């Protein structure tokens, strides 16, 4: 009897061991798949982050200036899809469905609770991208490795990210070596705003070349512009766009060296204004246009007199390039003693240069405004919007 009871107990232990082994195996399998799924979800999030940033760059293209929804949507989606493919998930190329690139407006980009409101691409300031490895998505769900023993053969993974073009511009810090970005030329603010609305539209830039056909974006004549209300030598008021007293000056700023000669000006046109140049001109390596409370900041910067025909060669070398320029309100004093009240920065593509003939005629440096975004732009929640013309992209969600 004792022997039989012993065998019965052994049988119960064997059964219990088998059951517990199956349960433990199931938990182990589940733990392995949960860990792997977490790693795959992190990969999907990286892909979504990168794709959202790329898509947001599409909101800083010419299509925004012409209010062309199709151009903006195509630019944003093509960039998002291209970057997503390069960020592999589960060792596969990532394919984002077109409808998973969404355009919207976030009224306060600095407020995490400000809602994402769907909007037309050309007026959006945010893009949300969702990467899916799930049933019905382009790449399908993720197969499990061991969880199949529990009847779970697939797992769905999704990740979303939202990036914005932050247009609340507080200032600008140029790259350390200038990178040819910011040139020492300035335009009077009211004339600049007027030409954005009413300037000529005779040029376009396609396939790396300037073409003599309009494209819906009006050009500006950046330089030269007779600054101030001085006499033209004939007893009549000179042609100018500024009500100040800066006669004899045409819009070149002394940034980096006092009384710039042509070689110094050409160097900054070709190489760009540097932080050191700003320090020499305004005492700091960056230029700010609002303080911490949102109050406007202006800068008094000396100007260089005369029309420097000698800078034509340097400007012609920049044709096709995007450059930054200064915006001022008034000019005081005359000639080499002129001081410009600088209040902002704009960006445009160099299209044509003609520095011969009369200042009051057709001569000038012609730029086409662009929707510029870059890491040199300083943004802040208290700064006013620069509209579509200047921005910085950042990830917000």
String of helices and strands = HHHEEEEEEEEHEEEEHHEEHEEEEEE
Total individual domains: 2
Distance between the termini: 72 Å
- Cα-atom radius of gyration: 30 Å
Query: Which residues sit in consecutive blocks of at least 5 with pLDDT less than 50?
Result: 229-239
Could you estimate the helical fraction of the residues in percent?
A: 25-40%
What structural category do the secondary elements indicate? alpha+beta
Classify the beta-strand content into a percent band: 25-35%
Count the DSSP helices: 7
- Main sheet: strands, sense, barrel: 7 strands, mixed
Rounded mean pLDDT is 85
Q: Mind explaining what this structure looks like?
A:
This protein has 397 residues and is α+β, with helices and mostly antiparallel strands. The protein folds into two domains: 2-165, no CATH class; 170-380, no CATH class. Helices cover 28% and strands 27% of the residues. It has seven helices and 20 strands. The chain has helices spanning 2-57, 62-65, 69-86, 189-198, 262-271, 275-282, 312-316; strands at 101-105, 117-118, 126-133, 142-143, 154-155, 157-166, 169-172, 182-188, 204-206, 209-211, 220-223, 249-253, 287-288, 299-305, 322-332, 339-354, 364-369, 372-373, 377-379, 390-395. The strands form five sheets. Strands 8, 11, 12, 14, 15, 16 and 17 form a seven-stranded mixed β-sheet that branches. It has a six-stranded mixed β-sheet with strand order 2-1-3-6-20-18. A three-stranded antiparallel β-sheet has the order 13-7-19, with no helix packed on it. Strand 15 and strand 16 (339-354) form a beta hairpin. Helix 1 (2-57) crosses helix 3 (69-86).
């Amino acid at each position: 009897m004792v022997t039989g009871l012993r065998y019965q107990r052994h049988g119960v232990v064997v059964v219990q061991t088998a059951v517990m082994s199956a349960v433990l195996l199931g938990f182990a399998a589940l733990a392995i798949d949960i860990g792997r799924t977490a790693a795959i979800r992190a990969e999907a999030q990286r892909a979504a982050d990168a794709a959202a940033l790329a898509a947001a760059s599409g909101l800083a293209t010419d299509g925004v200036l012409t209010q062309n929804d199709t151009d903006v949507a195509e630019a944003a989606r093509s960039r998002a899809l291209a970057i997503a493919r390069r960020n592999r998930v589960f060792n596969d190329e990532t394919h984002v469905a077109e409808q998973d690139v969404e355009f919207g407006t976030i009224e306060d980009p600095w407020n995490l609770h400000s809602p994402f409101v769907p909007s037309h691409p050309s007026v959006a300031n945010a893009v949300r991208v969702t990467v899916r490895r799930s049933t019905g998505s382009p790449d399908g769900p993720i197969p499990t490795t061991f969880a199949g023993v529990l009847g779970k053969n697939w797992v769905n993974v999704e990740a979303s990210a939202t990036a914005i073009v932050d247009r609340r511009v507080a200032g600008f810090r140029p790259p350390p070596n200038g990178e040819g970005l910011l040139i020492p030329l300035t335009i009077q603010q009211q004339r600049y705003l007027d030409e954005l609305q009413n300037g000529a539209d005779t040029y376009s830039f396609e396939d790396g070349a300037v073409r003599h056909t309009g494209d819906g974006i009006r050009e500006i004549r950046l330089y030269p512009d007779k600054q101030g209300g001085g006499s033209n030598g004939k007893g009549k008021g000179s042609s100018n766009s500024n009500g100040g007293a800066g006669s004899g000056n045409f819009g070149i700023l002394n940034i980096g060296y006092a009384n710039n000669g042509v070689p110094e000006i050409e160097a900054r046109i070709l190489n760009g204004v540097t932080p050191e140049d700003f320090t020499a001109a305004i005492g700091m390596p960056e230029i700010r246009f609002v303080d911490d409370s949102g109050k406007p900041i202006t800068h008094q910067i000396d100007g260089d007199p005369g029309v420097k025909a000698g800078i034509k060669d340097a400007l012609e070398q920049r044709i096709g390039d995007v450059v930054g320029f200064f915006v001022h309100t008034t000019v005081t004093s005359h000639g080499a003693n002129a001081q410009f009240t600088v209040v902002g920065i704009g960006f445009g593509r160099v299209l044509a240069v003609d520095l011969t003939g009369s200042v009051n005629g057709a001569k000038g440096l012609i730029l086409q405004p662009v929707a510029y975004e870059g890491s040199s732009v300083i943004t802040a929640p208290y700064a006013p919007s620069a509209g579509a013309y200047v921005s910085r992209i950042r990830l917000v969600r």
